[in-house]
Amino acid sequence: MYQDFAIDMITKDDGPALQNLAQSVGWNFTTGHTNLFISPAGKMFGYRFEGNLVTSAGIYIYNSTLASLGVVIVHSDFQRKGLGKSIVKHCLIEAERVGAPVMLVATEQGFPLYESIGFQTIGNIHRFEVNKPLRHMKVNEFFEVNHVGADDLNELIALDETVFGANRSELYTVLFANIERGYLIRNAKNNVIGFGFGVRRNNVLVVGPIVADSQDVALALVENFVSGWSGSVRIDIPSQKEDFMKVLLTYGFEEKMISPVMILNAQELSGERDQLYGIVDPVFG
Description:
It is a single chain. This protein is an alpha+beta fold. It has eight helices and 14 strands. Strands 1, 2, 3, 4, 5, 6, 7, 8, 9, 10, 11, 12, 13 and 14 form a 14-stranded mixed β-sheet that branches.
């Protein structure tokens, strides 16, 4: 069935080809997307037909603790040939080698495929967007918000490991190199109690992760991202943060999409996820 297709690694040189593949299914990948997705943070594979990239999938392995599956695309002209399931299984073999359970954020089109493989739904991610807030955000406490610097990175990686439940140092190194801006908040003991990154995607600032020890800290971070940006701001929020989402709605944010969070070879996600107010990206978990 696959004799006319060749599977291999997707590399940096394939950035334009990945953008074209995404465009075939109505997705708009910027160079910023491809810089993050095709990076040392994970491995990407694809089928080629007559030299052209016609499928893609990425597996981002965080040691044996957890892996994230994403960027699963099948060109519109090559769908319903089993290529999607085949490329996904190829990625899952990579995770099996280190014994890592696999999570993903599913699209509507991909959900039946993942369910057929054995993934189970354990929650949702809610996409919120705003052009400009209706009014100034009210935060119950005053927080001194500072820009993230290179010297802060190791501390942020350690905090993310506590919250996410896996070490994502390679991802953070790549992410930090591509951020438009980043903010953090420290307490009186100089410990980080909240931080967030923002990556530019055309005129959209994609904010994530947002890690905070309270809702007020998370709101203070969001206020800084929104107030310093002239375009739209997007945040992907775990379903557990209902109160946070309700507050954002009062400031002009709109819920644009709800996507299932699915997992394979585990029952739940690890980490202290009550401090996670926004994920990095659906691709990375």
